[in-house]
Amino acid sequence: MVMDCHHLCVIFILFRACQGELHCKHEDCGDSTSLYKERYESQTVVEESPYMISPDDFYYKFVAEHRPLVMRRAAKNWPANKVWTQDYLIQSFNEGSQVSVTKGIQNFPFGSKLHLPIKEFFVRSMQEDLMLCDKPTTQMLSDMTAPLCLRCQQFMKKMKVLYWSRQYQSDASTSLFFHPDEQLLTVVNGSAKVTLVSPLYSEKLPFNPEELLTISRLNTDIILKLSSEGIPHLTADLHKGDMLYIPQMWWQHVTLSADYNQFVQFFWPSKMTPNLQSSSKTKDLNQLPSMQASLRSLLRKYEERFLVMGVPPLDCPLQDKRMSDYTFETGKMSPEEYQAIHNGPDFTEDEPCNFDMSNQQSPCHFDTCFEDAEAPICIRYILEYCSRWEDRGCAIELPQLLNKMDKVTMEQITTMKSPYLQAN
Ligand SMILES: *[C@@H]1O[C@H](CO)[C@@H](O)[C@H](O)[C@H]1NC(C)=O
After folding, report:
1. pLDDT at 242
2. Of ligand 1's atoms, which has the minimum distance to the CA of residue 81?
3. What is the pLDDT of residue 85?
4. Residue 284 needs a FRET pair 20 to 30 A away by CA distance; which of 235, 263, 349, 354 works?
5. What are the JmjC domain coordinates in residue numbering (predicted)?
6. Which spans in 206-316 are helix H?
C-alpha cells in the first residue's frame, strides 16, 4: 500500500512540475499529452452530466483539460423555450431590421452572408436552405438564464452570444469546422448530433486545397469515415434544453436532426499566458508546407501547450442573473449603446510582441505585422514562420489570428506569394 502511494505521488509531482509553465517544451511534456490522448481515444461519446454543474467543476475538470461535456436539460427552464415563436422573434428583431443569414448549411459558419428582414427569412427558409446566425436582441437576452457554470469573470467578461435558427429539411449537416473560442452550444428547440475531433489529430484529417478552416468532403457518414481512417472522435446527441461544451479549436460537425431548430451559442476567449522563451528551428525546409498543413500543425501544437499550461484561479463573485444583466460585446444595439460599453480601458491592447524578439525572422521584425497585425500578408507570414520555428508566440497568437479570418481573407492568404521567403 505504502509503495503504491509513493509511486502515485511521484507521478503526481512530475505532472505538476511539468505543468509549471516555462520549461515545457513539448518533448518533455509529451507524457502528459499522452495521458489526455489515452483517455480520449478510449471514449466514443462525449461525457455527460444529468444536470448543470458548478463553475469550479466546469472550469477545472472540463475547460482546463479541454474535455467536452454535455449537460442534460440545463436550459430546460429558459423562458425562451416557450416564448421564442416566429411572431415574437419578428417583433423582437423589429420587422424592418435585417438579420445575417448563410445560404447552404455546408457554408456555415464562414461562407458569405445575406442580410434579410427576419420576416422574409422565415418565409424563404420554408423552401430554401437558409440558416440564420446573428446576435440576439436585448429582449431575447432577457429570455435566457446565464448558465450557472459560466457565472465567473473569466467567462462573462468577454462573452459573445449568437442565435441560430433553421427550419429547412432535417438531417442536414455543416462541414467539419472549428472555432478559436471556447463554446457552450445550447439547444432551445429541435435536436442535433454533434461529432467532435480533438485538434491533436488535425494532421490526420483529409484536406481540400480550396478550404483552410473547414472540411466539407467528410460530410456524409462522417463517423464512418473518421472510423475507417482511424481518427479518434466523440459524438453527442443533443435535445431540447441540453448544453454542450466544445473546447476551442476542436473540430466540430453538426447535423440538425429536427425540422425546426433554434440554438444559442455562448463564446468566450481562452488565452494562453505569454512567457518569454526563445524560438528554435524545427526543420530546414526547402519548400514551405501548404497553408493547410501549417495551420493543422499549429492547431496540434496549440492543444499540446494548452493541456500542460498552468491554470489561473477562478473568480466568481456573481450570483443568479439573467443574460440581460450583463453587457456583451454582442447584442443588437444602437451605436450609442455600443459606444457606452466600448469606452473602457479594457480594449486598448498594447501588448509587446509575443513572438521571439531576438529572432530576426520572427513576425516581430516583419514591418507589415508591426503596422497592421490583421493584414492578410501578416497572417500568412505568421503561418509560414510557425511552420519553420518552434516559438511560444505561435500558440499564443493563434486564436486572435483565426478570429480575423473570413472567407475572403482566407483566399487571399492561400493564393499570395510567400512573404516569408521574400523577406528571408
Ligand atoms: C419547437 O419546435 C416545435 C416543432 O418541432 C414547434 O411545434 C414549436 O412551436 C417550437 N417551439 C417554439 C417556441 O418555437
Report:
1. 98
2. 13
3. 96
4. 354
5. 124-284
6. 222-228, 291-308
